[in-house]
């Protein structure tokens, strides 16, 4: 009977040697996952710091640069193995596979499902790191806290403390002022996530504009669209807000119906038009993804 296991993979930029540096050395792992300490050899002890200080974790069971790296730990008294595999692809990328296996009997399906979700997030961190910060050293920080109630109630409490709307998305004026004190790449990443959750995928036209962004907002204010405009202003875009239809119970905006649906397709919704002052030529047929790395690439160019 085979050992219960999962495997997760992702395509990342870089040569096998560059990817190996990120997944099979202490400084590399610490830049996108967690601080780690071990010698580059089979049989070496390995330790991770997951928030409580550096703790012995297990032993390196394979160290074959730049293709295979593995180590074995214990999970509730049961041996647990993690194996990393690197496969070169054409075009300067590699496939990274991580295999997690329980080396014993028992039903570990719940634990493996949680691990799969965890690795998917961490592998995205790895891809972002290799795309934008390959070879750079980083300090790993984890902020934790406890809250009473359900997961949903704890999430609402966190969002409320950050100044973000919860529940029916009743926005405050000038929400999340702390966001505008963060570096441009962080604000760009937040905007990317905001687009995915609350807006549409931005389409950048050949003339450098992102026309007709619309926000799914409720309530009687325009604070949400104003927040987006301020965020884009902080990223170097010139913005303007135009109401394309009647805004229910909005005292500050006059109802206005656009004369052309093609010009303002988001009827009855505030629209945001942006123009970048930086020359940025993109074919008219191209669509810019709302993934964070697209925006980070632009901010770093």
Explain what this protein looks like in three dimensions:
The chain is of the alpha+beta class and 301 residues long. It folds into 2 domains: 5-132, Alpha-D-Glucose-1,6-Bisphosphate, Chain A, domain 4 (2-Layer Sandwich); 168-257 and 265-300, no CATH class. 29% of the residues lie in helices and 25% in strands. The protein has helices at residues 16-23, 26-32, 109-132, 151-162, 184-198, 223-234, 292-300; strands at 5-13, 36-38, 45-48, 55-64, 68-75, 78-89, 93-102, 209-214, 238-243, 270-275. The strands form 2 sheets. Strands 1-7-6-5-4-3-2 form a 7-stranded antiparallel sheet. Strands 8-10-9 form a 3-stranded antiparallel sheet, covered by helices on one side. Helix 1 crosses helix 2 (26-32) and helix 5 (184-198) runs antiparallel to helix 7.
